[in-house]
Amino acid sequence: MSKALEREVNKRRTFGIISHPDAGKTTLTEKLLLYGGAIQMAGSVKSRKAARHATSDWMAMEQERGISVTSSVMKFEYKGHEINLLDTPGHQDFSEDTYRVLTAVDSGLLVIDSAKGVETQTLKLMDVCRLRNTPIVTFVNKLDREGLDPLDVMADIEERLKIECVPLTWPIGMGMDFKGTWNIYKNELHLFSSVHEGKAQDGLVFNDVNDPRLEKYLGEFAEQLRDELELLEGAGNPFDKERYLNGEQTPVFFGSAINNFGVQEMLDAFVELAPAPKSRPSTTREVSPFEEDFSGVVFKIQANMDKNHRDRIAFMRICSGKFTRGMKVKHHRVGKDFTIANATIFMAQDRTGIDEATQATLSVSTTTALSKLVILLPPKKS
Questions:
Q1: Which of the 8 DSSP states describes residue 117?
Q2: Residue 196 has what pLDDT?
Q3: Within 10 A of 369 (CB to CB), how many other CB atoms are there?
Q4: Axis-axis angle for helices 25-35, 263-273 (nearest 10)
Q5: Residue with more model confidence, 349 or 185
Q6: pLDDT digit string (tens) for 191-235?
Q7: Domain 3-273 in CATH: superfamily?
Q8: CA–CA separation, 10 vs 363, rounded Å?
Q9: CATH architecture of the domain covering 280-377
């Protein structure tokens, strides 16, 4: 294994965002793209007449109804890591798409509505993640609205999803009194303005919870924050990265995606904690991402992405090796060799042709031979 290949594998993070409908999943996706520099202004999910729609909701039906109908693949770089992000449908009618996507990711980001807690579709999606021990990071959204007490939300997650919660940020206030989040992981406080116009906001930073200036900005919430952090330190569970990677513990972040509260703190911790590509099981053995030989699995077929053509796109997860344009691979299901002449990477509906791609890069092919869910291997490999 070459050092260059090892570096390429270790810098990648591939994850899917899952939630019950209307928890704010697509809004959070927009803010992650915003902080990742992939877009300069976040789009709107709900407004039919919005000047800019959500990047991941590219279908006309999604823009009109304000929901995600199909999963979207997006790629961006953040702090030296290459992020492959999949926004999935939350509605039960389109859940099959979400289930397929979850087979292609290394970790998941679960979005919870702070006013509703765990909901029906959340339970089903977590069952799918549990089958593969997928590591899960939880983002409790909509703290800018009145909702459940943060301790009650975590208790609901632990009781119904059967996974231990460890808060790595903690909210200050709620609804109209929402001030921001204290970053337990980094031991600092960021205060943000809700007047963001879809753009990233910098905020005031405090590195000591006993800083006397907190009273000026937080008022009575300053003492309440100190008491709650002391309670969490004494009675809460310590964060254990191994338990997180095994799917037994979930780090919890609080915020408001629409107002940029708590999103960047979550993203910073995510790229540090989330796993790089792992070995993936096949019918005969484990396939290591560090293997030199190319292999991949097609996890989704999407038709008519280009309204000018009746195209059919196969979304492929590269499991090992390196893809190069024009390479010959073996279609494992039918046992035939064929050449991948055209491959692209996606930013929702927008596509860019590529000549090569390495492990865990979510790429696609327009080859009609890939019109079934298949395993792709080098021609002479089994």
A1: B
A2: 52
A3: 16
A4: 80
A5: 185
A6: 766 655 445 455 567 788 888 888 888 888 889 999 999 999 888
A7: P-loop containing nucleotide triphosphate hydrolases (3.40.50.300)
A8: 18
A9: 3-Layer(aba) Sandwich (3.40)
